[in-house]
Amino acid sequence: MKLLTVLILFLPAVPSVAQESLAPNTATPANWTGKYAPCERHEDLLGREHLDLAVRISTANAILAQQFENALDFWSGVLDLDWHEVGAADPCSMQLVDGTPFLFNWCVCMSARSQLPDREGFQGWIAFNPRYKLSQYAMFLDSVHEIGHVLGLTHNPDQSSIMYSFGLEERSAWLDAADLDELALRHALRPGTPGPRGKLNVIVRMPHRAAEHARRGFQRPNGL
Question: CB 3.0 to 4.6 Å from 41: which of 29, 93, 95, 220, for a disulfide?
Fold first, then answer.
């Protein structure tokens, strides 16, 4: 697995657009749903030790698929996490799908939605809105944000965090100390990542990566 270099700096940034919240709610609704294949291994996302995620890429947008993979590589540099892509017939831990107009309430104001692990019906699905136009960099940032949600991160009120609700797509972004503290309560961090009560921020940079499916032993069907 190619790992994204993680830089530890004190620079400010604005994160990607967020669509869901894990904040405590006395009447927590069920997860959104759709006619997507289930992920039988979704409980992998709740693991507190090493995570070995089987990821199903079910989008017709090849650029989005690449940026989602870049985001997974980012997360594998922060957490003790490895991932590999699986086919449509294979069990998955997480799945990237193309959302329907109904899922986004026929609105082009929302770029993506993720299911949340504290809600009923969790399958590890992340849906992007095909009608919402995003740059490649924004696809990457939104993917980092939405994967953060399925890993259990809540929205962060600090505008400098990748987990902030809204942001400008062409700015830098990072996980701040509060995000890292919350992650450490749920998952194992990579050695060298600031631990609980950390004071530093992890800068998110888009990796320069070549196609690695041959090395992983997976060949995606044409058109996916």
Answer: 93
Tokens standing for 176?
Answer: 């701040």
In a domain, 75, yes or no: yes
How far apart CA 35 and CA 171 sit, in angstroms, is 35
Report the predicted TM-score, pTM, of the whole model to 2 decimal places.
0.81
Query: Which of 105, 97, 117 has its CA nearest to residue 37?
Result: 97
- What is the count of structural domains for the chain? 1
Pairwise pLDDT comparison (175 vs 214), residue with the higher score: 175
CATH of the domain at 65: 3.40.390.10
Long-range contacts of 140-143 (CB under 8 A, 24+ apart): 140/67, 140/70, 140/71, 140/206, 141/15, 141/16, 141/167, 141/169, 141/173, 141/204, 142/16, 142/17, 142/111, 142/112, 143/64, 143/67, 143/68, 143/70, 143/71, 143/72, 143/112
How many CB atoms are closer than 10 A to CB 14? 18
Q: Which two tokens stand for residue 70?
A: 């870049």
**Residue 91: CA count within 13 A, CB half-sphere:** 7
Residue 213 CB partners (closer than 8 Å, separation 6+): 85, 219, 220
Give domain status of residue 94, yes or no: yes
Of the listed ranges 24-38, 46-60, 209-223, the least confidently predicted one is 209-223
